[in-house]
Amino acid sequence: MRQAPMLDLRLEYEYMKSEIDSAIRRCLEHQKWILGPEVGELENKMAGYLGVKHCIGVSSGTEALILALRALAIRTKGREYFDRTDLIITTPFTFTATGDAILRSGATPVFIDIDPQTYNIDTAKIRQYLEKSGEGVVGIIPVHLYGQACRMDEISDIASERGLFIIEDVAQAFGGMWRGRKLGAIGTAGCFSFFPSKNLGGFGDGGMVSTGDDETAGIIRMLLKHGGRDKYNVDHIGYNARLDTLQAAVLLAKFAYIDEFNSKRRKIAEKYNENLAGLEGISLPLVKNPDAFHVYHQYTVRVEDREMFQSKLREKGISTMVYYPYPLHKMKVFGEGRSLCDGGLEQAEKAALGVLSLPVEPLQSEETTSYVAGMVRDIFTKGLTGKTAAFSASPAGRGI
Ligand SMILES: Cc1ncc(COP(=O)(O)O)c(C=O)c1O
Question: Which residue stretches of 224-295 are H helix?
């Protein structure tokens, strides 16, 4: 039986083996394992690609968020950490790290519901919340979930009207754009993850912060090396959160392929969309959105009977994943008064019950994409789930 894995890192390695092998060999030869030349080279290349003044390599996407938040607490408040009366608006429908970083910076996350079609934070609801009770809000962390841009013009307007910072969580959207601007280059700072499964993934953990602000960049550079310019005489409560030389070398080799791989992802998504358009009972991941250049970290559909759908696909050798089964406000860690919610977060809760991501391995063959699409079609046209649609299916987007 044909197999359709969510991703196939071995295949990707084979595709660029000679570049990766020689990048690793260079490291073996120079032996500069801590902040070796590859780290600076990667930072410069990424700054050029994104169109930002500074890119700073760090040890993970989670640390990128924490360091950016800590740097902003130091720069804007003159304190090492935010405190619990400092509120930071974000989405409840994201990976835990987004909210966890807010807690670890000392602030309180305020969860605002999502737009049910893009799964990103609903900007109209941010406005509503701020009009009701904006006191204490210091910043916004929009998450470009699944590779799709948040509505950055509106978020930037809201932030500049109220003097808030924006930290873009770009962990899932390397290379994505909003109205022609690279994600991570629009807010005060952008935080990237190089976790192996990301659009640009290393051979272990890694991350990056982008920013146009010299002071923020300077503080982050101190924080990631124990908190000082001089390692033996420090100013701030710091971390050991450097990006590994070896990871930077691998990422430099893989970076040469990022646009090609993102375009392969978009082609797979386009094909799924064409093949699944008009099916009743399945909601496709996007509506036509010419403003957002979607890079399909995930191709995520929504169905009523997810378990049945997932098990039918599994029987056919098709892997799927649920991102994410629990919205953040339902987790214990964000309970006990550690977070605030703006009323009900109904859309996030519904999404958590119905979403399912299909394989978008950039190197999967056209036959595999057709096979997956065909099986999904069969399930919905031949009634294999035994259930009919409860969600009103969104129109299939074409403008990717
Ligand atoms: C939206 C989001 N934010 C933050 C992170 C944290 O990144 P990392 O796993 O590199 O720490 C991830 C990824 O895992 C993510 O998907």
Answer: 245-255, 258-276
Instruction: Yes or no: say if 399 and 290 are a contact pair by the CB < 8 Å rule.
Output: yes
Give the pairing type, strands 108-111 and 340-341.
parallel
Beta strands in 7-92 (DSSP E): 54-58, 87-90
E strand or H helix at 102:
helix 96-104
Per-residue model confidence as pLDDT tens digits over 6-17: 999 999 999 999
- 167 with 155: CB under 8 angstroms? no
Question: Ligand 1: which of 193, 208, 355 to mutate, most ligand atoms within 8 Å of CB?
Answer: 193
Q: How far is the CA of 192 from the centre of ligand 1 (A)?
A: 8
pLDDT < 70 regions, the chain? 287, 383-400
| Number of domains forming the structure of the chain | 2
Q: What is the DSSP letter of 381?
A: H
- For residue 202, the enclosing domain spans 9-255
Q: Does ligand 1 lie within 6 Å of residue 174's CB atom? A: no
- CA–centroid distance, residue 367 to ligand 1 (Å): 31
Residue 43 Cβ < 6 Å to ligand 1: no
Q: Do both 61 and 32 map to the same domain?
A: yes
Spacing of C-alpha 229 from chain mean position: 30
Measured from the Cα of 94, ligand 1's closest atom is 1
400 domain-assigned: no
C-beta of 120 in contact with ligand 1 (< 6 A): no
Query: Could you read off the pLDDT of 121-138 as tens digits, one per residue?
Result: 999 999 999 999 889 999
Residue type present at position 52: V
**Do 185 and 278 lie in a common domain?**
no
Q: If you take atom 7 of ligand 1, which residue's CA is the nearest one?
A: 61
The whole-model pTM stands at: 0.95
CA-to-CA distance for 28 and 119, rounded, in angstroms? 43
CA of 331 to the centre of ligand 1 (A): 17
User: Which atom belonging to ligand 1 lies closest to the Cα atom of 207?
Assistant: 10
